[in-house]
Design a protein that fits this description.
Blueprint: E1 24-28, H1 32-39, E2 46-53, E3 56-65, E4 71-76, E5 96-100, H2 106-115, E6 121-124, E7 128-134, E8 140-146, H3 155-169, H4 176-185
Parallel strand pairs: 1-4, 5-8
Antiparallel strand pairs: 2-3, 3-4, 6-7, 7-8
Helix pairs in contact: 3-4
Length: about 200
């Protein structure tokens, strides 16, 4: 089945298992200092659990709360140096991780990255705004916020409807107007957030 033939829908696909959310994602980190200085000290994630890697006790397993109880974990070793260059991407590898921040604090993200001397880019992705940077081990990190005040339990509905309108429109990607129309179609009175201007289109860090 080609990408274009794969249906996009807010309805659940028929499957033997249905997940209820993300429990955690685990990343190979370098050492605890490098990981915590970025994710805890810059992004504000709480370190909520630290224990040996149960499959390899020579490593430490760090558990960080990303802000809503969902967890990001790292395998680290104090003898492992940072990987400062870009990560090598290949099939099965992680391209980037993305975290949401409150819209009213989104502009502060750019200020914090600037103050930290960290390279970053800001892009309007059509249906949301995102800063892109790298952590201390070279992994691309996206920090994003929604353009509209969409209830979490209707977010998938809004995205799927925006996709339908994008296809109907023949547009390359889902734009702000598609999301606005989707919200109207769904009867969601989602107010736009006051966000900084950002260039649109493709790009990264």
């Amino acid at each position: 089945m080609t990408d274009e033939a794969t249906p996009v829908t807010a309805e659940h696909h028929e499957s033997p298992v249905r997940t209820t959310g993300t429990d955690h994602v685990t990343i190979w980190g370098s050492n605890a200092e490098n990981v915590l200085s970025f994710y805890r000290d810059l992004l504000g994630m709480r370190l909520v659990l630290r224990q040996p890697n149960l499959d390899d006790p020579s490593q430490t397993h760090l558990f960080l709360d990303t802000g809503d109880g969902r967890i990001l974990t790292f395998f680290v070793n104090d003898d492992r140096p940072a990987h400062t260059g870009p990560q090598r991407t290949k099939v099965g590898a992680v391209h980037h991780v993305a975290f949401r921040v409150a819209p009213e604090r989104f502009a502060e993200v750019g200020e914090a990255l600037e103050e930290d001397g960290r390279g970053h880019n800001l892009f309007d992705r059509g249906i949301f705004l995102s800063y892109y940077t790298r952590d201390n081990d070279g992994l691309v990190v996206e920090i994003t916020t929604d353009k509209y005040d969409i209830p979490d339990d209707r977010r998938a509905d809004a995205l799927a409807e925006a996709q339908r309108l994008r296809e109907e429109d023949g547009a390359e990607y889902a734009e702000d107007r598609h999301l606005r129309e989707a919200l109207e179609e769904l009867g969601l009175d989602a107010e736009p957030h006051d966000l900084p201007d950002a260039p649109s289109g493709a790009g990264g860090i």
